[in-house]
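Supplementary notes for students who missed Thursday's class. We covered one full example, reproduced here. Read the sequence, then the structure, then the short commentary at the end.
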Amino acid sequence: MQPIPFNQFALTGNEIKYIEQAIHSDQIAGDGAFSKRCQSLLENQLTANKVLLTSSGTAALEMAAILADIKPGDEVIMPSYTFVTTANAFVSRGATCVFIDIRPDTQNINEQLIEAAISEKTVAIVPVHYAGISCDMNAIMGIAKKHGLLVIEDAAHGLFANYNNQALGTIADIGCFSFHETKNYSCGEGGAIVLNNKKFIERAEIIREKGTDRSKFFRGEVDKYSWQDLGSSFLMSELQAAFLFANLEQAETIKLKRCAIWSTYFEALRPLEKKGLISLPVIPESCEQNGHIFYLKTQSLETRNQLLSYLKKNNIHAVFHYLPLHDTEMGRLHGKFIGADQHTLETSQRIIRLPLYFGLQSNEVDYITQTLQSFYA
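Structure (token representation):
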């Protein structure tokens, strides 16, 4: 068997064609025709008030932190089991990250621990939808309403996944997506911010355009643009948007293929779970996933490392995932963990992610599951 990579970005057929169209247009900077087509498609598919493309998922989170008026001394509640940019976006504005434990079934923030972490300094809650499986958003939104807090969804994994038939990223005040090459829909580097709370829309346009009302100028609403607010160059280029639009046009095809691979893994590995050798993902009834990640959890760190080595020897590139943020030097400097760490560290030491991408072939999936079974045999 030829080496099987962990990830390959999706190519659906029109990427080069659309990039050529963008090159021959009048504009390859941001907010051109392809950016607008992507934003319109996402608004329609997600039933979102406003979607703005950004240069990365990180940029979307950084915009959210500015919109939330995060300032030194504020606290933001989030899981420790997440990518570093979830924290960095708020730390860079002077906030302290308040980390809490995750649930052992979904690896998402444990909604039952949130209220105990709220203080007079708390400004926002940032749920992260791990593997495209939703956090308990009903509970989280209820807590936020009770305490007058903003909720910002880190839906980097969650595009076209749902919670109670509502698209992830559209439930909270603000949602953030990533189009990094490891995501289901990609343009190399890119992201989007979803403004579900309409009060943020006008300011978001300004922040995204270097703190100016340049968007209004291009629409003919003002005769010149000027510095209005904080901001940065958060726009995605037209070349990236052209590539992304080709992916988004085939979003359902990509999702169905990824979910089919996910289901094949799940069914093939259930016998190992029944024997108590591994743990498989849990999808609550309220959630519809999008096939973003297929993971399993081994019984121990030692077994995890042995299995990764075995897969590598058999030309399969599988990987683990996040190192807990609270257990890092920066995490200790800019954050604090509230409550007991019962599952975060343990999950980080036991989890393995298997190859899952649009171009993965069925014979490769079968080879991966057979190799896993042979390891445990």
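Commentary. The chain has two domains: 15-249, 251-376. The chain is about 40% helix and 15% strand. If anything here is unclear, bring it to office hours.
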